[in-house]
């Protein structure tokens, strides 16, 4: 089922986030962040998989912005902000980079 289908049949399950991170930052920060991470990906070979996760999630969110006018999020848990699979990929990539960075220093 497409995102628009979910929005049509289950309007309470979909949130259109037209801002940036957690609805706080402007939307264009995502494009700048992707550009910087892309440059880092070209230079740094240590974090290939982690940066691929971050870039894939970021590109997915940018495509949502162009296609739907905002990122389509799903508020699954009432106590957490709404998120989607792309956000999960970005978070996982960041966590893996931090873990790998800290484990190198041990």
Automatic annotation (TrEMBL):
Pfam families: Peptidase_A8. GO terms for cellular component: membrane. Keywords: Aspartyl protease, Cell membrane, Hydrolase, Membrane, Protease, Transmembrane, Transmembrane helix. It comes from the Bacteria. The keyword Cell membrane applies. GO terms for biological process: proteolysis. InterPro entries: Peptidase_A8 (IPR001872). Belongs to the peptidase A8 family. This is Uncharacterized protein. It comes from Candidatus Beckwithbacteria bacterium RBG_13_42_9.
């Amino acid at each position: 089922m497409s995102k628009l289908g979910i929005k049509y049949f289950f309007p309470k399950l979909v949130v259109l986030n037209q801002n940036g991170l957690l609805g706080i930052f402007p939307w264009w920060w995502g494009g700048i962040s992707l550009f910087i991470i892309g440059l880092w990906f070209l230079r740094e070979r240590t974090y290939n998989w982690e940066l691929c996760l971050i870039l894939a999630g970021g590109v997915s969110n940018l495509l949502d912005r162009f296609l739907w006018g905002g990122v389509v999020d799903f508020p699954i848990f009432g106590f957490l902000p709404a998120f989607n699979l792309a956000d999960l990929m970005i978070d996982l990539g960041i966590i893996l980079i931090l873990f790998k960075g800290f484990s190198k220093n041990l």
